[in-house]
Design brief:
This protein has about 375 residues and is of the alpha/beta class. The chain contains 16 helices and 16 strands.
């Protein structure tokens, strides 16, 4: 089967984002399929060399090629810039590839246009990695559609898919209150190529520091709101409390208010500095003791059941994770290797519990990743659906 995956590697050239698409590409190929990568977002790419959106896509093109070529996808990607120019695979050849495709998968908005050769692909699927945000934005658009052309376009875009999937395991169920209207969202999760995230046998992490990589406040979904900046205030004193009790250090790699957080005891580093490519991001996670993380308020408030692709990578590395509960603890076993928290005291206790028997929790973390997020299992379920 020929599969085209649309992602956002060039639009957001960060290691974590790149791994998300790459593991779909590798996973589909491991299942025996003929796989190509597409990016057609109608947007300019972020260029870190100028720290702005770029009218020249050179950085995006170089980054995509550097990221995909070592894995055998150097001649299997097409980037359509915001003016419609085709790069990588040229336009006519790309249309021929699409004509022979069986499945078109759009991950996290990797394509925002229905070109004729996309629409003609037999099965078209969208994978939503921002549950709650996507459904609320779609509901807002549905209500505005009678008098707003852009809102009508947004609703019609999603109606073009045969299947809709979401990282929100509770979306569409009584456990989650986000409106879905007549759209049916099926649960899925990020596939992890666990062999690429294997911890060194018997090795403890070189840094005695818990970490995470986070966006303080996203630029999209401004009409929905509900970001990490709001949820973080509930644990803003946690770093000092852990330190005063002789507990673990926590470091945040973020693009937010580092001075504000450092003044409250948090170690802070620049998010892009640790995630500017695939392997720098991989190294940052693998050298960490574990992950401590806060979720976006929309995920938490609406009990979407969202679970982070980044957290799944920590687990595969044998790094325990203590992460805020969005309802995921009702879907994924929690308590060993992976622990949920709902308030600052639960977070502190969970970190201390892991530290009391770190080796056992590290082994359990790897087991959770292999059982729940292995790419072969996740993608076979996706294809069956």
């Amino acid at each position: 089967m020929r599969v085209i995956l649309a992602g956002i590697i060039g639009r957001y050239p960060w290691g974590g984002v790149t791994w998300c698409s790459l593991m779909y590409l590798l996973g589909f190929r491991r299942l025996g399929h003929d796989v190509y990568y597409l990016e057609d977002t109608l947007e300019a790419n972020y260029d870190p060399e100028i720290d702005a959106l770029a009218t020249d896509p050179r950085y995006a093109l170089d980054y995509i090629d550097r990221s995909l070529r070592p894995f055998g996808f150097g001649d299997r990607w097409c980037y359509v810039d915001y003016q419609g120019g085709h790069h990588g695979i040229e336009a006519e050849r790309w249309r021929r590839i699409c004509r022979d495709a069986d499945l078109f998968v759009v991950l996290s908005g990797g394509c925002w246009v229905w070109r004729d050769h996309y629409r003609a692909i037999a099965v078209k699927a969208f994978i939503d990695s921002d549950p709650g945000f996507t459904q609320l934005a779609l509901d807002n658009a549905r209500r505005a559609a009678p008098h707003n052309a852009r809102a009508r376009w947004y609703v019609d875009f999603f109606r073009g898919f045969d299947r809709l999937f979401t990282f929100g395991g509770h979306v569409g169920s009584p456990r989650c209150d986000v409106p879905t209207g007549d759209f049916v969202w099926r649960p899925t999760c990020q596939p992890i190529c666990v062999d690429l995230w294997t911890p060194p046998s018997g090795a403890l992490p070189p840094r005695n520091v818990w970490t995470t990589v986070m966006t303080w406040k996203i630029e999209s979904f401004t009409d929905v709101g509900g970001n990490k900046d709001e949820e973080f205030l509930a644990v803003v004193d946690l770093a000092n409390r852990c330190r005063s009790a002789g507990g673990p250090e926590v470091e945040l790699a973020l693009n937010g208010p580092r001075e504000f957080l450092a003044a409250r005891g948090w170690r802070c580093v620049d998010a892009f500095a640790v995630s500017r490519d695939l392997w720098r991001y991989h190294s940052y996670l693998s050298t960490s003791r574990g992950e401590f993380s806060v979720a976006k308020r929309t995920y938490v408030r609406h009990r979407t059941g969202w679970f982070s692709d980044r957290t799944a990578c920590y687990l595969a590395l044998g790094r325990p994770a203590v992460v805020q509960d969005t309802g995921w603890s009702e879907l994924i076993p929690a308590g060993r290797g992976l622990l949920a928290w709902g308030n600052a005291e639960e977070a502190r206790e969970a970190l201390e519990r892991v530290e009391r028997d770190y080796a056992a929790h590290a082994r359990a973390a790897r087991e959770v990743a292999c059982e729940r997020f292995d790419d072969r299992v996740v993608l076979q379920k996706l294809l069956t659906a």
